# Entry
Amino acid sequence: MSEKLSDAVTKAWVRLVRARHAVVSAVEADAKEAGVLPLEWYDVLWDLERHEEGVRPFELEQRLLFAQYNLSRLIDRMVDAGLVKRMICPTDKRGQMLFITDLGKKQRKASWPHYARAVNTHLGEKLTEAETEKLAALLGKLIER
Amino acid sequence: MSEKLSDAVTKAWVRLVRARHAVVSAVEADAKEAGVLPLEWYDVLWDLERHEEGVRPFELEQRLLFAQYNLSRLIDRMVDAGLVKRMICPTDKRGQMLFITDLGKKQRKASWPHYARAVNTHLGEKLTEAETEKLAALLGKLIER
DNA sequence: TGCCGATCAATGCAGATGCATCCATATAGA
DNA sequence: TCTATATGGATGCATCTGCATTGATCGGCA
# Structure
């Protein structure tokens, strides 16, 4: 039971954690400086904006990897902030449909250039185009299923 | 100011976040099942174990990317649990030296095989050796200063 | 139709985190 | 040496998260 990890796997594991932390916190720091929406809020709004027909919380949960109780409360806050609208789901009375509001669209749009610039700075500019594609492909394999 | 992100950069960004989340949460779930130390605790103990001469909190902060106030309280908990010992730093009275206790060593050692197995399952087995090395190399470029 | 296990979502409570600030000591410079 | 500034670390407070549980409805099946 005293398993071994190859050096390569150990290194990839450590760096996966470190690199994500480094990039995300740098991006968030830039965003905060610019006074734009938190990343999670942005992600939710972006998903809602691409699904004008409405989104069920559990879908968001799966797509964005939220814990159920966290998402529930995140939505509360976003509703309070006027960025998201909750409606009873017509086909399932347990559930609800979520929609982005006009204010939500406006704020998401205003946040976008800041995130784009930050991601370019902290990720895009550190790799060549080919390397970036390779990285995305490899990370993709870790996500499957 | 309405910057653009290439598709490759966007995809790499999203997958970096998702892949790390998927792998870490799968590993933590396995670890929790086995009733072993939380990942952060493990990381701290491992760092302390490799520096028997003692570690300053701010070093740990830099190496493991902790926020200062989080680390301060994490150490509190670990001291309470008897895994870490705090001593006044002889060369800087503002600071302290941290050491792992025998209990800390024992628990870290007991946790290791579970983490090794989980990391192998959720990362190692999803990539070939060559892919793993390539991934580590690319992630390395994202971390560089 | 009536019942039972599964699913969607909310919530009370304890513990963790972020932010700002504070205290103590160290260090550089006049 | 004396002062100003920087650094190491702790902490009060508000917020967020995790866990377990609850309430409501759904869907399958007898």
